[in-house]
Amino acid sequence: MISQWSRRSPWPAALLIVVLAALLYGCILSFGYVWDDSLLFLDKTALLNEPLSWSLLAEPVLPGTTYMRPLVFLTLFGEFHLFGQSPVISHSVNLALLMANALLVFAVCRRLALSTGREHGNERALLAAVLYILHPALVESTAWVSGRFDLMVTLFLLLGVAAYLAPGLRSGWRLVLVSAAMLAALLSKELGAVLPGVLLCVWVACHADPAEPPLRTFGRMFRCNAGLLLVLAAVLAGYMLLRVRSMGAAYHYALNTDYVRQAWIEQLLPLEALKFYAMQILLPFHAVGPLHPANELHPHDFASLSASLFVLGGLLALLVLAWLKRTAATWLALAGLLCLLPVMHFVPLFIGGNIGHERFLTAPLAFLAMAVVLVRWEVLFVRWSLSAQAGRRILALAGLGWAVLAAWTTHGILPFWANELQLWNWAYHAHPNFKYARYNYLYGALKESRLHLVDKEIERLQKEQSGLDVDVQLLYANALVRSGNEESLKYLEGIMFALPKFHEQADGRERIDHFLLTAMQMGGVYADYASALMVFRGEAAEALKYNRIAEWYLRESEKIPVRYQRVAILYALGDFSAADVLYHQQELFYYPRKDAMRLGVVQILSRYCEIKGAADVACWEAAKRGLIPATDGAPRPSASNG
């Protein structure tokens, strides 16, 4: 029955793909912003408050890196200006991108089935799209708004392949469309650079003749694609020039002999990454999550080395088959592996000490799903001495079992991405000794105002360890400030004593990006200390000093919170005109936590005035203006009392 309707039209299959994606991933529309969403666009409010410009879009994704993703930031800019900053809209865009990618998997696979003479092209293409949607590795890039980088680069890679395979398209238009797709992919993520290699793999999948000598096939491949490769090389060269001009360098890490010795030889990181991704591709049912710490690996253990040899043997077998047989399935599998090449640790990566992430499989899985459905299984059945009927039954049972497990896993892990605390509670319990997981768990608890969770974890760490790491001390001090505990001053003073005084150094701006804490974290230390001085000691002048230091560490789009804090300090100092001007300036900007900032002004000033008493001139004036609650019967202070 499926064969009858799918043979007539691809639209029912396309509708099924959209419905399946909506049913499985529709829950993400109720999710909030998590993880690096704060760093990329929540706390950095430039995308909402500054006019559109190249410098706005081409700012490095993370401080101290050269990751340039202007097209993704353009979608965020457009989204925020059209609809406001809403997690519902942001997740809707991600869901639409997943649907578009799955539909492109269907369209490309359908075309490949036709080009390679496979029967039941619609059914094969539908199966590839279903396998793609169900795979649990797609949860990270779809349920996390910042996963849009991977969704978008996958979209343009697939569009480039679709344009390359489009029948009846004039060569000139084909060049234009494929080149535009490559440029868009590069401006979404650096992975776009692999498109020429992917297209060559697709060409072999469609045009190779197993009876032809391999070298002749590959010579024909380059001759047929010479013009396109030259144009794509020019696109890549232009992109690199733009990148160097915007970022100041082609890449923020140097590939040197020390890295090769340590990462390739001592830690075996490329081989460990190959094992990790092989496991996540084939059996993604138990180790899916936001973190996969490299320091938990034991690459030189017998079991680990045995697994490495097994996976390496599988890769070599695939390469030999691709060279000798040149089947569509083997070359599509190579296209998928080519999409993994940039994250295999052959070059240094900035991924927080992890061996890999599932989001990096968003593009590879598109080609691997197509490879699976285009395998000539009937040939394998004969080699395995199976009848066609028995082989199909075994294949159907294995495929159905995998699909059910994949769908169950995807459904089970999606809720963990709903908010910051759920995500990091999951990750921390999976990796309790990973500092990155610990920090983010505590940060998530603070963000959700679950201070008792912070206290409980700090108490446990203090019993188990001789001291707290600096980043954990920072979060604990913030929790103490929030809970009204004056002990926060001692913690903050200790942290500030240990921190380099970048704000006093001539080259501090250049050195700050290479420190173990981010500039925003260090700015937070000084801002928290300014708050503590106000609410525990009533020292407004000293608080203003540290507030200005905090501002030095922050980029322009990150300064709104410290400027609201300064409003409270200026009111406390009696400079009402300056405070009013600064307050109204901040009110002109969009900030997602503006209500909390306004409340913070009142709370800081109120607590300051509790310490100073009603006789303080500034506090009396603040109460008179209704900025803080008035003290009944409080006499008007004389100027000398101020």
Automatic annotation (TrEMBL):
<dbReference type="InterPro" id="IPR052346">
    <property type="entry name" value="O-mannosyl-transferase_TMTC"/>
</dbReference>
<keyword id="KW-1133">Transmembrane helix</keyword>
<keyword id="KW-0812">Transmembrane</keyword>
<feature type="transmembrane region" description="Helical">
    <location>
        <begin position="225"/>
        <end position="242"/>
    </location>
</feature>
<protein>
    <recommendedName>
        <fullName>Dolichyl-phosphate-mannose-protein mannosyltransferase</fullName>
    </recommendedName>
</protein>
<feature type="transmembrane region" description="Helical">
    <location>
        <begin position="331"/>
        <end position="351"/>
    </location>
</feature>
<feature type="transmembrane region" description="Helical">
    <location>
        <begin position="303"/>
        <end position="324"/>
    </location>
</feature>
<feature type="transmembrane region" description="Helical">
    <location>
        <begin position="93"/>
        <end position="113"/>
    </location>
</feature>
<keyword id="KW-0677">Repeat</keyword>
<feature type="transmembrane region" description="Helical">
    <location>
        <begin position="12"/>
        <end position="35"/>
    </location>
</feature>
<feature type="transmembrane region" description="Helical">
    <location>
        <begin position="125"/>
        <end position="145"/>
    </location>
</feature>
<keyword id="KW-0802">TPR repeat</keyword>
<feature type="transmembrane region" description="Helical">
    <location>
        <begin position="363"/>
        <end position="382"/>
    </location>
</feature>
<keyword id="KW-0472">Membrane</keyword>
<feature type="transmembrane region" description="Helical">
    <location>
        <begin position="151"/>
        <end position="169"/>
    </location>
</feature>
<feature type="transmembrane region" description="Helical">
    <location>
        <begin position="394"/>
        <end position="418"/>
    </location>
</feature>
